[in-house]
């Protein structure tokens, strides 16, 4: 395993390109670019290039569809009248 390898995390089938490798507490961890998270190397297997979908940082951070969903939600919540709600609960 080395930086640049395509690997698949077997529990979730997440496929990514290795961007960093670390050792800690006797385990080796590899960071995959798709999620930018570290995975236990014992659960990683080589992936076929056809399984890999390259995602740019901009797309991963915020997609157009995500932006539209947030705008729709803001419109919905802006029209809610909360003047008749009474707080309740312990405390």
Structural class: alpha+beta
Mean pLDDT: 81
Low-pLDDT residue spans: none
* Main β sheet profile: 5 strands, antiparallel
Distance between the termini: 54 Å
Q: Going across the major beta sheet, what is the strand order? A: 4-3-2-1-5
State the share of residues found in helices, binned by percent: 10-25%
Count of alpha/pi helices: 2
User: What is the alpha-carbon Rg in Å?
Assistant: 21 Å
Number of strands: 5
Envelope shape: elongated
DSSP strand content: 25-35%
Please write the string of helix (H) and strand (E) elements. EEEEEHH
Structure description:
This protein is α+β, with helices and mostly antiparallel strands. It has helices at 57-61, 64-78, and strands at residues 6-9, 14-24, 27-32, 37-40, 44-46. The protein has a five-stranded antiparallel sheet with strand order 4-3-2-1-5, with no helix packed on it. The chain is elongated, with a radius of gyration of 21 Å. It starts with 5 loop residues before the first strand and ends in a 13-residue tail after the last helix. The model has no long low-confidence stretch (mean pLDDT 81).
Layout of strands and helices, then pairs:
Blueprint: E1 6-9, E2 14-24, E3 27-32, E4 37-40, E5 44-46, H1 57-61, H2 64-78
Antiparallel strand pairs: 1-2, 1-5, 2-3, 3-4
Task: Tag the structure with descriptive keywords.
single chain; 91 residues; alpha+beta; 2 helices; 31% strand
